[in-house]
């Protein structure tokens, strides 16, 4: 079957960037999948995401690409059936791991979390602090102690 398809395509290679390379599309894709959930699941549920959920989705690794994102949205939808919005607590636990900030955690892990939070919040320190459950002062302290952390998102 695959050989026949290759023959019909003439062995043409169609480059398709991964979801990691198209992070700006994650919010609209997630919303698209969310709007399909009531029909697919057959039960009413939330129709929006919190800003924190979008930030977590943008920061997550997506080795499974778009299908994995669709599955995560569907699972969160089912977890949040009685809510009006999907919150971080409705996401699978392993998805929120990159954005965990632990007061007595490893310095390098916390610095990575601060860096990711600033990236997904486009350098907004207050929003990043809220996302990590810490203070703006702590974020500024990490920016001072770790000059490698960029406050602004690199332009594409």
Note the topology.
Blueprint: H1 2-9, H2 26-41, E1 48-49, H3 51-59, H4 65-79, E2 85-86, H5 93-96, H6 107-120, H7 125-132, H8 136-145
Parallel strand pairs: 1-2
Structure, briefly:
With 156 residues, the chain is mostly helical. It has helices spanning 2-9, 26-41, 51-59, 65-79, 93-96, 107-120, 125-132, 136-145; strands at residues 48-49, 85-86.
Write up this protein:
This protein has 156 residues and is mostly helical. It has 2 domains: 22-95, Helicase, Ruva Protein, domain 3 (Orthogonal Bundle); 100-145, Orthogonal Bundle (Arc Repressor Mutant, subunit A). The chain is built from 8 helices and 2 strands. It has helices at residues 2-9, 26-41, 51-59, 65-79, 93-96, 107-120, 125-132, 136-145, and strands spanning 48-49, 85-86. It has a two-stranded parallel ribbon with strand order 1-2. Helix 3 crosses helix 6 (107-120). The termini are far apart.
């Amino acid at each position: 079957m695959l050989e026949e398809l290759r023959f019909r395509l003439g062995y043409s290679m169609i480059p398709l960037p991964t979801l990691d390379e198209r992070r700006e599309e994650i919010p609209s894709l997630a919303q698209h999948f969310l709007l399909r959930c009531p029909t697919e699941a057959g039960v009413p549920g939330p129709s929006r995401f919190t800003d924190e959920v979008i930030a977590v989705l943008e920061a997550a690794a997506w080795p499974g690409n778009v299908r994995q994102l669709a599955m995560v949205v569907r699972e969160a939808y089912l977890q949040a059936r009685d809510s009006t919005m999907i919150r971080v607590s409705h996401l699978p636990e392993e998805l929120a791991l990159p954005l965990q900030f632990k007061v007595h955690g490893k310095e390098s892990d916390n610095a990575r979390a601060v860096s990711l939070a600033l990236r997904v919040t486009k350098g907004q320190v207050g929003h990043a602090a809220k996302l990590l459950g810490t203070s703006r002062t702590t974020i500024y302290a990490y920016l001072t102690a770790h000059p490698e952390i960029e406050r602004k998102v690199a332009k594409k």
